[in-house]
Amino acid sequence: MQLESYFCALVVTVCIPILLILLRVLRTAPFIQLPKHINQRKSLKHLTGKHVSIFLGSGGHTGEMMKLVFKLDLHNIKRTWIYSSGDTVSLHRAQSEEREHYNNGNGSYIQIPRARTVGQPYFSSIPTTIFSIFVAAVKLVRHSPDVILLNGPGTCISIAYMLFVFKLLGLNHTKIIYIESLARVKRLSLSGRLIMPITNRFIVQWDPLYKQYSRAEFYGMLM
After folding, report:
1. Cα–Cα distance between 197 and 202 in angstroms, integer?
2. Are 153 and 164 in contact (CB under 8 A)?
3. Total-model pTM
4. Which is nearest to 150 in space by CA: 86, 216, 202?
5. 105 and 152 assigned to the same domain
6. Which one in 31, 33, 80, 98 has a CA-CA gap of 20 to 30 Å to 25?
């Protein structure tokens, strides 16, 4: 009888919470849904929401993202530009975009520490990645965007998964949109492969990639 009571207590305290977590994941996770169930394959030109965050990944990633944003109508949407510490080039490009196209309207800026610098050993990048995730978590919880646009590199992985965990906990409703780099023709980037399961929309710019992945969307070259 005592063993039976112990077993019942174990089920209540361990198994039921785990089951509830799994049900929450199944309800929230985009990877169990095809794109048509999420957005009816609308193009990015139909992007809606009161608040959009745009991650600038430095270098070519920033260049591609700026070309994409230029094609979107974000005049009536609050814009938050996210850039990595030390990346003054991306910050200046975002500020220039605000001045030239939005008349210094609703734009704001978030700086987050780099998860890993170029050439940094992977082992030593563990603490810097954790710190980057923590800072990004604090700042994005305050801003709580409706949509976030990502296109790499590695730092965007920590941002995406942090937002996904917050969504599981019911702390936000941010939709994650990832746009694969134009340079990726036949194979996804590492960032793309890692982020795809948790994105609400995953957009590629070449037909071979579109045919490989059921969750991918394809509208031609966007950048």
Report:
1. 9
2. no
3. 0.80
4. 202
5. yes
6. 80
